Amino acid sequence: MTALTAMTTATRTTPSCAPAPDTEAATRAAAALLTALGVDWDTVHMARTPARLAAAYAEMLTAPAFELTTFPNDQGHDGQGHDELVVVRDIAFQSLCEHHLLPFVGVAHVGYLPGERLLGLSKFARLVDFTARAPQTQERLTQQVARQLEKHLRPRGVGVVLEADHSCMTLRGARAGGARTVTSTLLGTLRHDPAARAEFLDLARPARSPGVR
Ligand SMILES: Nc1nc2c(ncn2[C@@H]2O[C@H](COP(=O)(O)OP(=O)(O)OP(=O)(O)O)[C@@H](O)[C@H]2O)c(=O)[nH]1
Ligand SMILES: [Zn+2]
């Protein structure tokens, strides 16, 4: 099958989006919050700060729609398709912890053992970004990315590893600067087959500083 044919037989799925934010109401609320916190924002320099704050949160909470394009997995040797792991490492993401609405920022390593469908490579990053733009916990974000891949690709296995710095834990509160949280969700063969699990986790191994074992 040619690449062109594969394109024409790709299936596309547009994930559903949250309703558009009411930026005027958010701006009024941001002004009230700053006032309640004792911040004198009604100055030449800060007059637009409530609007900027509202816009910043609206941007961080609004997921851009995209199409989750998949292709038939029939282009390998003898039309057998690709039957080994596909892993996209180091996908930068940012989200907001649902407890403090402060950012947690890190990288995602996402992979799968293909079945009948292959995913367009850019869609790993789009799916992570789409899922991250909401009040989240790292655990739920990890699981939601994995479940979306399972639902749309019906692969033999899925693996997702996220590493992130939570600013609610590093910039305030515990002030555990440098602490990094690692979460994983493994499904199908990657969960149950020890060799496949080990191979995926090796490929998705959290980055280590030079000299750290
Ligand atoms: N499991 C999990 N916890 C998170 C995540 N993001 C933030 N938290 C935690 O949510 C908890 C909220 O705890 P609370 O005691 O209600 O909030 P708090 O008084 O501000 O707690 P401190 O952060 O310890 O000062 C904190 O322990 C946060 O570190 C996440 O993605 N997953
Ligand atoms: Zn938090």
Automatic annotation (TrEMBL):
Q: Name one GO molecular function term.
A: GTP binding
Its annotated pathway reads: Cofactor biosynthesis; 7,8-dihydroneopterin triphosphate biosynthesis; 7,8-dihydroneopterin triphosphate from GTP: step 1/1
The GTP cyclohydrolase I domain, residue ranges = 28-204
Q: Does the keyword Transferase apply?
A: no
Catalytic reaction annotation? GTP + H2O = 7,8-dihydroneopterin 3'-triphosphate + formate + H(+)
- Similarity comment: Belongs to the GTP cyclohydrolase I family.
**Assembly and binders:** Homopolymer.
For this entry, the protein name equals: GTP cyclohydrolase 1
Q: Which species does the entry assign this protein to? A: Nocardioides dokdonensis FR1436
